[in-house]
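Honest question from a wet-lab person: if I give you the sequences of every part of a complex, can you actually get the arrangement of the whole thing, not just the pieces? Trying it with mine:
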Amino acid sequence: MSQNEFSEGDLRNTGMALKHDREWDYELERIVEAVHERDAEKVGLQFPEGLKRRGPKVADDLRELLPENVTVMISGQPCYGACDLDTFLMKRTDVFVHFGHSPMKESEKIIYVPLFSNVEVAPIIEESLEELEGEDVGLVTTAQHMNRFEEMRTLLEERGYEVHTRRGDDRLTHEGQVLGCNYASADIDADQVLYVGGGKFHPLGLAMEHPEKKVVIADPVNNVVSVADTEQFMKQRYASVHKAMDAQKWGVIFCTKIGQGRWETAERIVEENENAYLITMDEVTPDRLRNFDMDAFVNTGCPRITTDDGPRFHKPMLTPGEYEIAVGNEPLEDLSFDTFHGTW
Amino acid sequence: MSQNEFSEGDLRNTGMALKHDREWDYELERIVEAVHERDAEKVGLQFPEGLKRRGPKVADDLRELLPENVTVMISGQPCYGACDLDTFLMKRTDVFVHFGHSPMKESEKIIYVPLFSNVEVAPIIEESLEELEGEDVGLVTTAQHMNRFEEMRTLLEERGYEVHTRRGDDRLTHEGQVLGCNYASADIDADQVLYVGGGKFHPLGLAMEHPEKKVVIADPVNNVVSVADTEQFMKQRYASVHKAMDAQKWGVIFCTKIGQGRWETAERIVEENENAYLITMDEVTPDRLRNFDMDAFVNTGCPRITTDDGPRFHKPMLTPGEYEIAVGNEPLEDLSFDTFHGTW
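Yes, you can. This is the full assembly:
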């Protein structure tokens, strides 16, 4: 997910975070059990950006429950998804807990605590029905609301809808789940998809990936119904591609985060373009790229950094597909949303 | 070294970088030889911040000299010293070249290219003699000017000075060499030390570590002689310690960079203070720490981030020694500069 993950539907700005804090399940018992089972002496905790400020409180609660000789460590690395594990801390702790996301890949070493939200979804779904057209509807949500997926489905079915769902691919844990970079669960036989969840980050990606479908947003966190509008995003993408068409020197970014690497893509571009330079990094930020005197960048890492944060960079930044258009290998009509499949 | 390494004597701002570019030795033959010897297919290049923009040109030159099947990769990670190796890239390349620093620890895997400067040192040393008092003088410099160390010594001896030099400890490669975090080479029997090199970053650290000595700066890059003045720095340190005296919640930073970790120090603080939280990260930046609701931080990583960048953080940040003063374990008079010893 991109660094803008929390810019829309950001819990910190809504007050929702505190209000519902006690209703979130940190699954401390599961962690304590794992510590005892493994005779662990070091426990690592990783939180995504919007939840980091809760880290010390969770550490306090855990320390009360754990033997004195156990050291609890909190990852201070930025984290934007289940693709973004702190592998340094993971390798150096006996129990490593990743909060806020569901597993991208199961591992005995990692305890994933998705932090299910207990916010009610029924009222906002009722309200969203006004935006639906016809009886076929796809249904998707995020890890935080997965615990209520069957409730969502039942509610829609009771209202007479034919609900289409699927599990996307092996990057996704659950049926109906979407990630910022993967909407394979919306590859269903319906012209509209209902997204139930907080913020616009996910439904905007969904609408870009499936431009032929109407994407209705039922946001139970901010208590608002809307329809995803990708116009601004698409304009930005076309503008970036056009700007990059004159580029001579290309920086090709290979992201070193465990779940964000597309090596074959990066290597192929560099092999085919003698004016392309391979640059490796974990956090892809405007500051870090400003050091490189390139005309444009192609980011083979997280597509949401490219699409959502792109305008913050000093030079155009494209997805691999957009790069092929900019250098003339593909026609402009082929511009599409960059998605990420598989794990590691 | 801190993120301010290039704020004083920054080559980018002086025009020196371009002027002397061709006089710097990138030692490409040595790299090409290693590639052939190891039948390497992947070559990784790492440059410190002030040299990163030269990366693509060095890659160009190398690609002309190397077989077609060799992939050259440039590290996009921030880099502030020989303590700060891109271990991800190092592990995934057959030849890994670190530019701009001398070895902190020898390794068969790594080629260190210190980038010796060919700027003349004699004229500025002549000029600096006016600031020297008495005949005993210590002599120190940085990796970039190490190639002229004997010339510096001879020049001083010819002028009648007794030149005191030593190799610091095993963190330092050469006799007379200083690092931003280590001035053991100035532990010599003289009341004054002549620092020959660019910028004020190193001599300021030297003067803080050895407050009883006069530190004369002969800067051949910016062509200026001055005397290190630590007053502003010391005021800031006292102010930070005072502010942190009321702190309840302490964030204890363990830096995960290969040469910046002081695990025992971090662990001891957390064990002794139940209101201390261990936070692990590589880049220690204001943005990353803003996510944590602490009253103060103690940074067991690079001391120069604490002393030079400290005021940029939202809460006081102290060195381990300053922490002991702030929590009342040591008297205020014991405030001293934090230095870093050993390797990894």
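Two things worth pointing out. The radius of gyration of chain A is 21 Å. Residues 98 and 112 of chain A are 5 Å apart (CA to CA).
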